[in-house]
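Same chain as my last thread, 158 residues:
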Amino acid sequence: MIVLDCVSESPLWERHPGIEAVAERALAQAAQDCGMTLLNGAEVSLLLIDDARMREMNREWREKDKPTNVLSFQSVPPERLASAPFLGDIVLACETVEREAANEGKNFDDHAAHLVVHGFLHLLGHDHIDDREADVMEALETRILAALGIADPYADEH
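reply #2:
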């Protein structure tokens, strides 16, 4: 079981009162299906912010002067995950998640769940820098989302 510590720094998230439950469900499924042993009760922090704050964070941590949908910050290297009481932070930007969901014709909660799963997999050491890593990560995301009843977010890309 993963424990979610959800903090909202933006009133924009009040438009999505079920976001914490969506994130908890997504994290529980991801933890179950990730193929890794994690400490029971390990914690993940979810920070809900607006695009302005995300732009600042993205500029500071990735040297990209624009907002992004999700950022992840690992607390421990993958080889220490099995005993880690805290796995890391996932950050979501409200306006970007809303805009992407609308532009892609997706349900907001489904898109947010996908981004939480995506961010969680980054906490576990997965990445999508090269094609092979991307294929592995996308396949895992797709499997987790299918278990949640969410359509393959990459279906149009294949």
